[in-house]
Each structure stands twice: as structure tokens, then as C-alpha cells.
Amino acid sequence: MKGHIRKRGSSYEVVVYLGRDATTGKKKYKSYTVRGTKKQAEAKLAQVLHEINTGEYVEPSRLTFGEYLDRWLADYVRPNLRPKTAAWYEGIVKTHLKPSLGSVPLARLSPLHLQRYYNEALQDGCKGTSYGKTPGSPLSAASVRGHHRTIHAALEQAVR
């Protein structure tokens, strides 16, 4: 893999060659802006090249967690799991996860987002009329653990 650094005013542009696009055959490049010193730009270039060489590099996308959950339900859950299990996952995603976490970009989803969600679910929990509860009533720890298992399964599939 190749890359270079270019001075752009008071910042540096790090450009990395990603190979050729499989469908069009055109060369693909990814650029990053580093506002700082040349050493910081060199460190960013080394980091990205290392990620590419070790297979850890993932191209940033604008996919939100809610969009990913919809895709996960359609592509993985419905074809591979029993109908009742799929319906259980769909209920959690539709009623709880998408209203709370659906707008967060998947690449930016952090443990802090999840912990905040779990705390809110335990305190003022129910968004809809699920589990036979009225909206706003707290969810049990067992219900929140079920939500955690759903999130874990979806994110584990995303990593694969």
C-alpha cells in the first residue's frame, strides 16, 4: 500500500491508495486532513497503512445504527432464525433500539452511547406499549439484558 502527505495551508492532507475498485476498475484513494504538525500527519499515515496491511481497515460510511439494524434483520435474522426469535428481535429493534440509538452513525457508536441507553431503559424505559407496560415505565434488568444480547448479536455480525 502506498500513501503520501501534502501540505494544505496550515494543515496536512494524508492520501492513501486503496487499490482498484472491483466494479469500475478505477483507482481508489482515501484522504484524511490532519490539523497539526507534519509528525502527526506522518503518524496518521503510518497508522492507516498499518490498519490496511493487517486487515483492520474499514472504510468510513454514513450508515446509521438504525439502518444497519434493518439490514441485519432482513439479511441475517429472518433467513437464519426461527420466526418467533426473529419476531422477538424485530420487536426490540422497532420499539426500543431504533427510537433511542437509530440515528447514531454506526462507525461512531460507542460504549458510552450503549451505557446511556441501558441507564435510560432502566429508569424511564418503555417507549411503546411493549411487555404489557405503559410508556415511560422502567424496564426490568432482565429486559435490558435482552436488549444487550440483541445489540451484541447485531454488532458481532457487523464485525464478521
Q: What does this protein structure show overall?
A:
The chain has two domains: 52 residues; 95 residues, DNA polymerase, domain 1, CATH 1.10.150. A three-stranded antiparallel beta sheet has the order 1-2-3, with helices on one face. Strand 2 and strand 3 form a beta hairpin. The chain has 160 residues and is of the alpha+beta class. The longest helix has 19 residues. It is 53% helix and 15% strand. The mean pLDDT is 88. It contains five helices and three strands. The two termini are 23 Å apart.
Concise description?
With 160 residues, the chain is of the alpha+beta class. Helix content is 53%, strand content 15%. The chain is built from 5 helices and 3 strands.
Largest sheet, strands/sense/barrel? 3 strands, antiparallel
| Shape by Cα distribution | elongated
How would you spell out the order of helices and strands? EEEHHHHH
Radius of gyration: 21 Å
Q: Tell me the name of the CATH class of the largest domain.
A: Mainly Alpha
Write the SSE topology.
Blueprint: E1 3-8, E2 11-20, E3 27-34, H1 38-54, H2 65-80, H3 83-101, H4 111-124, H5 141-159
Antiparallel strand pairs: 1-2, 2-3
Helix pairs in contact: 2-3
Features:
single chain, alpha+beta, DNA polymerase, domain 1, 2 domains, 5 helices
